[in-house]
Amino acid sequence: MYEDRIRRPALMNKVMSAEQAALLFKDGMTVGMSGFTRAGDAKALPAALVERARHGNPLQLTLLTGASLGNDSDGLMANAGVVARRMPFQADAALRRKINSGEVMFIDQHLSETAEQLRSGDLKGIDIAVIEAVAITADGGIIPTMSVGNSANFAQQAGKVIVEINLSAPLALEGFHDIYVPAARPHRGAIPLTTPWDRIGVTEITVDPERIAAIVITDSPDSPSNALPPDDETDAIARHIITFLEGEVKAGRMDPSLRPLQAGIGTIANAVLHGLIDSPFRNMTMFSEVLQDSAIELLDSGQLMMASASSITLSAAMHQKFIDNIEQYRERIVLRPQEISNHPEIVRRLGIIALNTALEFDIYGNVNSTHVGGTHMMNGIGGSGDFARNGQLSVFVSKSVAKDGAISSVVPFAAHVDHTEHDVDILVTEWGLADLRGLAPRERAPRIIENCAHPDYRPQLRAYFEEALQGGGQTPHVLEKALSWHARYKREGSMLVK
């Protein structure tokens, strides 16, 4: 029945229900699950583990993934008490509540680092890997679905491997993947990738078939992207970036194909890429973590020549279009392990233009990507740090205000710093763009205030900066007032002085 999916006959006797496979898990285990931004995630085992826990068999696991899971799996497992510790990224409201209440220990990591730390023994080894697949080859190789993430590393290192064969994933996905796993440090050679379209590995995850302990059959699509369509503000942000990049081309710092693009997950990043459809740039490439709707639109327009990433996360309509026309994307999309898509060595070599989203940034260019009010985790740093520190251009975008203007995204001092001023080149809001290259802190502040802040908040920011200058210093601050805006919002419901 599944001969086209399970091509090694000896593995047919490993087919079982998700409930049976869930019995392989023991309390305290470390589990690696496939999935990267709602794509290619295990569908059946999370639900089966929740049911097992609900029927009087408590289970607490350390759960590692590529990034966020779909199908509400993170929240369901968190609410059932299955997740004790989680890394490296999440985007689920229920899990977020558990993290911020201290019930789940969350380790927020750069996405390029998890596999490296597992390989080096810095993290506890994987007991069970759960990997979603299109098929298993005759040699026992696992062909991933719409993401690779950390799956290759989990499968190669785990004591046991459970494969979820997803019948909704077309066999035509075979061949999209380029699986390359670096050798152990310290004497490994360079990663032999010099262009975004290079293929340096194999098309399946190599694993000893003897370690495949169970095969579960599913037929469930990925959760669709929840990114919102572009609006007037994100269109304005896109126009500022396009004008800036046109200036870079005119100045001779890059040609009209630009440098390879990276864009973070979410509404604003997706909208900014969408704006490039009306740009003068041609023959562009992407070397990113995630391909969203805008990447497919750019491929269809012909402006994007090819795209390399670790996952494809699309709206329902765009996903159907992708599946219906999958052959036309075969030579133009490559899916890689996230330690390759995000690897600092490659990001630096290729000269990536990194476009990522900020929750807030301060007048000197420090960026908070993760913590609301400096204390409460939103989703995580993801891969933004991998690209921001190592790319040729590090661009962070944000709408200038939130909560109907009660919160300014430009503040005197970021309440939590994920990306220091040293790693940030360009800041953009709907009001304008601040090019910070070559500027000292005292020069950065006026440019950020006048170009990026909402007009309602500019007088307050100017007043803070002028007062800070009176105290002197390389990076002037009024320490007792640096976080007063956040305190005011918590106390009065608005950062704006009325």
UniProtKB/TrEMBL annotation:
Gene3D superfamilies assigned to the protein according to its UniProt record, in alphabetical order: 4-hydroxybutyrate coenzyme like domains, Acetyl-CoA hydrolase/transferase C-terminal domain, Glutaconate Coenzyme A-transferase
Keywords attached to this entry: Transferase
Pfam families xrefs: AcetylCoA_hyd_C (PF13336), AcetylCoA_hydro (PF02550)
InterPro entries named in the record: AcetylCoA_hyd_C (IPR026888), AcetylCoA_hyd_C_sf (IPR038460), ActCoA_hydro (IPR046433), ActCoA_hydro_N (IPR003702), NagB/RpiA_transferase-like (IPR037171), Succinate_CoA_transferase (IPR017821)
Residue ranges of every copy of the Acetyl-CoA hydrolase/transferase C-terminal domain listed in the record: 320-464
Molecular function as annotated in GO: transferase activity
Residue stretches making up the Acetyl-CoA hydrolase/transferase N-terminal domain: 11-216
NCBIfam families xrefs: YgfH_subfam (TIGR03458)
Similarity annotation: Belongs to the acetyl-CoA hydrolase/transferase family.
Protein name according to UniProt: Succinate CoA transferase
Natural source organism: Duganella margarita
Highest classification ranks of the organism: Bacteria, Pseudomonadati, Pseudomonadota, Betaproteobacteria, Burkholderiales
